[in-house]
Amino acid sequence: MTTNADTAIVRLEDVRLAFGQTEVLKGIDLAINKGDAVSIIGPSGSGKSTLLRCINALVTPQSGRITVAGTRVDQLTRESERIALRKRVGIVFQQYNLFPHLTVLENIVLAPTRILGVARQEAEKLARELLEKVRLSDKANAFPGQLSGGQQQRVAIARALAMKPELVLFDEVTSALDPETVGEVLWVIRDLIRDGMTSILVTHEMRFAEEISDTVVFTENGRIVAQGSPREIFHGNDNARIRQFVGGLSGARGSVRDGEGI
Amino acid sequence: MQNGTLTELFVRWTGKLGLNYEFLATGYEAQIWRDGFVTTIYLVLLLIPVSLLFGVLFAACLTSGKPWLLAPVRAFVEITRNTPTLVQLMFSFLALNTFVSNLLGGAQHNPLTPFFWVVAVVGLHVAALHAEALRAGIEAVPASLVEAARGIGFSRLEILRYVEVPLAFRTSLPAIVNNLINLVKLTTVGNAIAVSEITYASIMVWTQRDNVVELMLVILAFFSLLNFIVARIGKWVERRLAVPGYGI
């Protein structure tokens, strides 16, 4: 992928991060264009989720430059600045993490009304549109505990979109789902990417990554080992390690979806 | 008068059972006694919101992670939990109140009444107990849920207000209702500094009338009723706030 400073919405340069003695990211360089879908694949513990959390300043690396939509994330010093960034960057988690005491509709309108100051009526209108988009219009008044995992995850996506983010991060969003409900979540993400939403996905769904990604990034041990088009990574690759990883996954898809992966 | 005859009927009827409620037919003592009920109810109605408000405030400090907020509240919680409320009340009224009076140049300039000190001491004491219950509830909110709220762009205070406190309130509600039931009973410490709640008022009456058993029966029934109501309201709130699928 060719990228220059004008088109990159996310740019990481030599990002290094350690939790105590454990080095998690050992010099990550990555550039992502506006409107692109990028999948990050690789074995568990390779720093994929941490990498995502650096982009919306949930964790702060020790060194390196991170630029997100014109903001130098690594230079943010105050929590209020990080909060301003997070309002522009959506994130969806493996465990959905819906607010259990609020209905589906309230989950979606809470942040726009309370922290963006959007009028209630307007926020509710958008929420209902988003619910239609994720095909859960009939569940507006249900509580998260009454929904299946796949339905909860779709609400979580709608909740992230309600903030009208400039890009969305997906952190293994199908890893905790039953195999039957993985499809309905991937459907929603596929729609979103087709609509041109810049998306960064940490995923173990290789076939999905291959289908929807503009770029696939393979990480291992805190480094980006390879990146390129899905074709290059999944087929034309001469890196034995990637072939072994990808091959191993496609041979054991069911178990991958159930748990942490390889 | 209709009311007068009803009271007379009651006095005569209970008199046949050997119970002495004759003071009810008098003006002055009956008035003191009735005011005692009113004062106790007034205390309870004021103390419940005061204790809850400060309980949330203390819990917020205890879970803030900021040492300058945490340390003083932790110290206060420890002191108030570990010492008798009666002693706290006497100390507050006899020592702190006198100190305030001296500061303001004489007791006549001191606006703080014994009633105020009962509300302050009992309210903050129960708030400390609420705070511990709420803290447990706040710490039980999954870290991943808090991270998700941060990821959306909520600030620390907004997370507390919209996510942690609503969930913590649900988990700690049984403990909080217990505290409130204790609070109702604790209002009786007011009699130590001449706040004329129901026990103080009853003592006023029975020292003249020698009818301790008669008044005790009523006091016990009265507090049983108050706490029955508190417990029922607690149960009702618990049902109202129940969240499907959330293990509370």
From TrEMBL, chain A:
Location of this chain's protein in the cell: Cell membrane
Domain ABC transporter span(s) in chain numbering: 10-246
GO molecular function: ATP binding
Species of the source: Rhizobium oryzicola
PANTHER family named among the record's database cross-references: AMINO ACID IMPORT ATP-BINDING PROTEIN, GLUTAMATE_ASPARTATE IMPORT ATP-BINDING PROTEIN GLTL
SMART domains given in the database record: AAA (SM00382)
Protein name: Amino acid ABC transporter ATP-binding protein
Family, per entry: Belongs to the ABC transporter superfamily.
Membrane topology per record: Peripheral membrane protein
Matches recorded under SUPFAM superfamilies: P-loop containing nucleoside triphosphate hydrolases
Organism domain of life: Bacteria
UniProt main location, coarse: membrane
Swiss-Prot/TrEMBL keywords: Amino-acid transport, ATP-binding, Cell membrane, Membrane, Nucleotide-binding, Transport
Pfam families per UniProt: ABC_tran
TrEMBL record, chain B:
Gene3D superfamilies: MetI-like
Topology versus the membrane: Multi-pass membrane protein
Signal sequence segment: none
Keywords: Amino-acid transport, Cell membrane, Membrane, Transmembrane, Transmembrane helix, Transport
Residue ranges constituting the ABC transmembrane type-1 domain according to the UniProt record: 37-231
InterPro entries (alphabetical): AA_ABC_transptr_permease_3TM, ArtM/GltK/GlnP/TcyL/YhdX-like, MetI-like, MetI-like_sf
Statement: the UniProt record of this protein carries the keyword Thylakoid: no
Coiled coil: none
Bilayer-crossing regions: 41-65, 85-105, 112-131, 212-231
Transmembrane helix keyword on record: yes
Domain of life per record: Bacteria
Localization: Cell inner membrane; Cell membrane
NCBIfam families named among the record's database cross-references: HEQRo_perm_3TM
Family under the similarity heading: Belongs to the binding-protein-dependent transport system permease family. HisMQ subfamily.
Entry protein name: Amino acid ABC transporter permease
Organism field: Rhizobium oryzicola
High-level lineage: Bacteria, Pseudomonadati, Pseudomonadota, Alphaproteobacteria, Hyphomicrobiales
